[in-house]
Every structure is written in structure tokens, then in C-alpha cells.
Amino acid sequence: MPADVHSSYRLDDLAQRFGLSLAGEAGRSIRGVGTLAQAGPDQLAFLANARYAAQLASTRAAAVVLDASMAAGCPVPALIAGDPYLAFARIARLFEQRPAATPGIHPSAVVEPGAAIDASASIGPLCFVAASARIGPGAVIGPQCVVGDDCDVGAQSRLVARVTLVMRVRIGARVLVHPGAVLGGDGFGLAWGGQQWEKVPQLGGVRIGDDCEIGANTTIDRGALEDTVIEEDVRLDNQIQVAHNVRIGAHTAMAGCAAVAGSASIGRHCLIGGGAGVLGHLQVCDRVTITAMSLVTHSIREPGEYSSGTPLQENRQWRRNAVRSKQLDDIARRLAALEKGMPR
Q1: For 26-52, how does the pLDDT look when each residue is reduced to its tens digit (9 = 90+)?
Q2: In the sheet that 288-290 helps form, which strands lie side by side, from edge to edge?
Q3: Does domain 163-306 have CATH number 2.160.10.10?
Q4: Which residues form the catalytic set?
């Protein structure tokens, strides 16, 4: 990230502000942040992964955030933290630049009569706001967004651009929704009528708690009867599918391309890896980690880390193992027969 020429912070001020220990020149000024390899002489870098420790000796950064075990080998001033990555994230936020939104409604926006829009909210170009929609104080509705029937956008929440709230979506306070996300679309509800599919009406809505973040092109379907619920401080990466009547507990994070099928329930403080899937109507308890590309086929009742799938292998080895996997049932039967005939 380029240095911010408008902001400068002394190292001792940063240490005091974020509860860190300082080793080295207290008065050095920080104007931005960067990586160990690329940070310049007025930028702050961090070291949180031992794989990058070799870059420490040659860094040109003004200072580095790291843990106590790395401090002795740091050639520049150091901010010492128990969790360097977390400390760096908090400091980096000081340099984050977002264009200020202007309160009011852009002339090209279409706002139906009856929409309740707080005077401090911002409605951007080419937006549509339905008559029964409600936009809270300080909310920002970016370009080309749609806020449909009976939708609420809470205070200080931001729809970045091209976000669609279809209907009956309740977004809490300080929620960030990235471009292309669609919330409140139809759930995939179908009943077989003997000759063709019959669509099941999706009569519920979507409820998003405070302080959530929803990634680009992520979809959250509204419920069939009750609401789909995303509790507070849930973080969803890009291109995630959350089906109807799913419930995701507070402080859970899901990586890109994960999918949760209808009526599944994910607990609090869970981590779902990229490309993982959770089948419908299952329950995952609190504090569960699902590693990338895993498929959850049964409910998980105990906290812990769970995996499925086949790890990457050299192709010839994978082919041999794939052939042998087809023989497992036969091998198991032969082994059982041998054991049955063996003397006890």
C-alpha cells in the first residue's frame, strides 16, 4: 500500500495506542504500510509467518511488527506484539483511504415514493430503492445497487456497487457488502409433481447481523418459511453460496467458493475453508474448522478440525492409489475371511 502523505504516526505513539512494546528509535515517523520485501523507509512492515523470516535482515522498512522471538534479529526498530498480524491489521487501518460519501440522492437514482431514507444516507448513481425500503443513518448505497421491497439497510452500512437486495432483507449496522452480491433471491425450493417440478414459494427473508462482511458475487437466499440468518460479525469471502433457511453463527468466517445447503446450521466461531461444502439440514457446532475442499456429510457435534477429500499427489502415485481404492472392498472381504479361519 502506498504511503499516505496526509498521515504520519510516531512509533512510540503507535506502541502506546495499540498496547505494544517498542525496541529502537521511538520518534521515527510512519506514513504507510508494506511488506517486508517492498516497504520503504517511511513504511511499517510485519513478520507473522516464519517462512518470511529470511527477508527480515534485508528489509528497508522504517520498522517491523513482530513477536518477541524475532526482535533480536531485527535490523530496524520493532513493535513487539503477541499477535503481529492482528497488531499490523489494526495499525494498517489508520492508513486506509475510502472516498467520502456525500449525503443525499444522486439525480440518476430512482427512489419510489414512500421509501424511508435518512437524511445522512448516500444513494449513488443509477440506484433503485423500492417504496417499502428503509435506509438508515450514514448508510452508503453505491452505484447501480438495488434495494428491493421490504428491505432495511442499517446505520453506517455500505453496499459498495451493483449489490442487489431482492426482498425482505434486513441488514444490521456497519455491514460491508462487496460488488455483485445478491441477497434475498429465491431459495432453491422444488417439489416433484410427477411430470414436472413445482416451485415452492420462498416466503421468508434474510437477516444480516451487525458488523458483517459479505464478499463479491456471494449469494444469500431468502428462507422458504422462516428467515435465513447471518449472525453478527460473520465474514463471508467472495463467491459463496448460502442457501435458504441456513443459519450461520456469530464470528464465523468462510473462505471463497464455499457452499452451505438449505436448512444447515453453522455454529459460532467456526472457520470454513475455501471450496468446502456443507450438506442440507446438518448442524455444525461452535468452534469447528472445516479445511479447504472438504465435504460435510453428517452433523458435527464436537469442536475441532475436520477434513475430507484426497490431498494432492504426484500423478502416477494418484493413479495407482485410485486403482487400489476400487479393490478395497474385495481386500476387506478377503482379510475378513482369513481372520475368520485363523485360530483364536
Answers
A1: 888 999 999 999 999 999 999 998 889
A2: 104-105, 122-123, 140-141, 158-159, 176-177, 213-214, 235-236, 253-254, 271-272, 288-290, 304-306
A3: yes
A4: 244
